[in-house]
Amino acid sequence: MALRVLRGMLGLLLLAQASVASAVLSIEIIGAGEHQIPVAIVPFGGDARLAQTISEVVAGDLQRSGLFRLIDVAGKSPHELAEVSYPDWQVRGADALAIGTVTAQANGRIEARFRLLDVVKQIELAGQAVSANDDQVRAVGHRVADLIYEKLTGDKGVFSTRIAYVNRQGRKFSLIVADSDGYNEQTVLAQNEPIMSPAWSPEGSHLAYVSFETGHAVVYVQSLHTRQRLVLADFRGSNSAPAWSPDGKQLAIVLTRDGSSQIYLIRSDGSGIRRLTFSGAIDTEPNFSPDGQSLLFTSDRGGSAQIYSMPVGGGQEQRMTFGEGNNFSPRYSPDGKGFVCTHFVNGKFYIAAQDFQTGQVETLTAGGWEKKPSFAPNGKLILFASEARGRGILATVSSDGRVQQHMFTQSGDAREPVWGPHL
Amino acid sequence: MKKLLISFVLVNLLAACASEKPKEPVAAAPEPVPVVTAPAPAPAVEVDPLNDPANILAKRSIYFPFDVSAVQEADKPVVLAHAKYLSEHPDRKVRVEGNADERGSNEYNLALGQRRADSVKKMLELGGAKASQIDTVSYGEEKPRCTDHNEACWKQNRRSDIKY
């Protein structure tokens, strides 16, 4: 059903202005949610340049969530509560209205004061002052969007979170950390050897990843604050597929030191290694359940790549996916009630979701080169690697499959994206 | 200053002319005189068959079907020839590099590439090479020889390379 909706939708195009610090050229939003909340975002008063950026960030964030419809504010621009005439907004069909001002202060900081108003009930839903360094104007926008999202949907916003991915340009590989909308990129590691499988620690302070800089696949853990890093696993053969336990104390990794690719547990300081699977087949891509009790993983033990689950403490391993095609890269949903994975059938890759209770697999995307899904920490959006215009790009899809966003970076192929936790 | 610039340009022009000259040989090189030799005796110095482009050992790539890591029948003679060479040259070492096409996840393909390298290693050992002579590594789909989304490309990337 999601497929049909996506194909039938007229693409809404939002060209986000490229900021100086960012390599993102454009963001395209395709599709629309079923029950969208009509909301009017009045460009903030005060500093016009800052206000412009904040408006764009807030509008972009809310649109790509798929849950909001932006109401044209044409002709009206209240910035203070006293200037708001509720009937103006009722006529326009807005349920909610966001107003505010932003000022650049003498100490180099910017301050945004904003209010979210319920147009129907004519009451104030939220009011907040957000302050940040003047180079973090986008962060202010994300905070405002998070607050609007939370007040109007009841779920926590994820716009202030970060993502990690690998950018490949010819032979050059870079590990990138960026804002959830792809802006504000920072390079964690750049080299001429492959980088794979970045994984966020539960607090968002560290990244585990696979690097080939010594000639073979080795797992590293790097602090994003101090930039210090640790060799987590460098055994004979391939060391790969790091996944953090929810408490951050250990990681599941994949080693070939004893033969084929098997799953092991290791403490986050690299000690105490313990083998978990003994299949002799390929077992890879482990992912912890939110309660830390189970792992989902990819295995070809049944003859082709499918998703399996197993208790971390040992016990019965269970096949989760059946039917035509192969399945890879499972990730639990944050509520633990299902998972997403990469589904490969008839030469195409899809992002698919399975609900544990129904066992039903639903494809969320139209198919193509769509790989490596990961949930936003609120479970409402899924980030994945896609391809458009012959390049690897980042994309998101709402968890109901209705809204997709494509993020085009300036150059190279974006791959292996993963959504970070709430900070 | 202007003069200098002009003379610089001139020098460049001259250099350009000069560089074209060797294309037309001034005098023909002396014709090589054919040497008539007696029926060849056994060569005094044995040529390393590794350096002979006509030898089967010149083949260093083993190709695989999709999602398969077993060495195919057609490639067995190549792997066994390398095994024989290694057993006869215990000082030589090889690195077997496994690769996969892009169909699959990056991690699955890393595992598959490792299995492709390991299956070649196993056959080398069966053919007489020592385990200590063989190192394996997988690049998965990370170092493709060809980057298009089609079978012509993929079949080149499903490969183990034997590197001396």
Task: Describe what this molecule looks like in 3D.
The complex is a heterodimer of chains A (423) and B (164). In chain A, a hairpin with a 4-residue loop joins strand 6 and strand 7. In chain A, helix 2 packs across helix 4. In chain A, strands 1-2-31-30-29-28 form a 6-stranded antiparallel β-sheet, covered by helices on one side. Chain A has 4 helices and 32 strands. By secondary structure, chain A is mainly β. The two termini of chain A are 34 Å apart. Chain B is an alpha+beta fold and 164 residues long. Chain B has a domain of 108 residues: 60s Ribosomal Protein L30, Chain: A (2-Layer Sandwich), CATH 3.30.1330. In chain B, strands 1-4-2-3 form a 4-stranded mixed β-sheet. The longest helix of chain B is centred in the last third of the chain and has 21 residues. The N terminus of chain B is likely disordered. The interface between A and B is medium-sized, with 35 and 21 residues.
Helix-strand layout with pairing:
The complex is a heterodimer of chains A (423) and B (164).
Chain A: H1 2-8, E1 12-14, E2 24-30, E3 37-41, E4 45-46, H2 48-65, E5 68-70, H3 86-92, E6 96-104, E7 109-118, E8 123-133, H4 137-153, E9 162-169, E10 172-179, E11 186-191, E12 195-200, E13 206-211, E14 218-223, E15 229-233, E16 239-244, E17 250-255, E18 262-267, E19 274-275, E20 283-288, E21 294-299, E22 306-311, E23 318-319, E24 326-332, E25 338-345, E26 348-355, E27 361-363, E28 371-375, E29 381-388, E30 391-398, E31 404-409, E32 413-419
Parallel strand pairs in A: 3-5, 3-6, 4-6
Antiparallel strand pairs in A: 1-2, 2-31, 6-7, 7-8, 9-10, 9-32, 10-11, 12-13, 13-14, 14-15, 16-17, 17-18, 18-19, 20-21, 21-22, 22-23, 24-25, 25-26, 26-27, 28-29, 29-30, 30-31
Chain B: H1 2-20, E1 61-63, H2 76-88, E2 94-99, H3 106-126, E3 134-140, H4 151-157, E4 159-163
Parallel strand pairs in B: 2-3
Antiparallel strand pairs in B: 1-4, 2-4
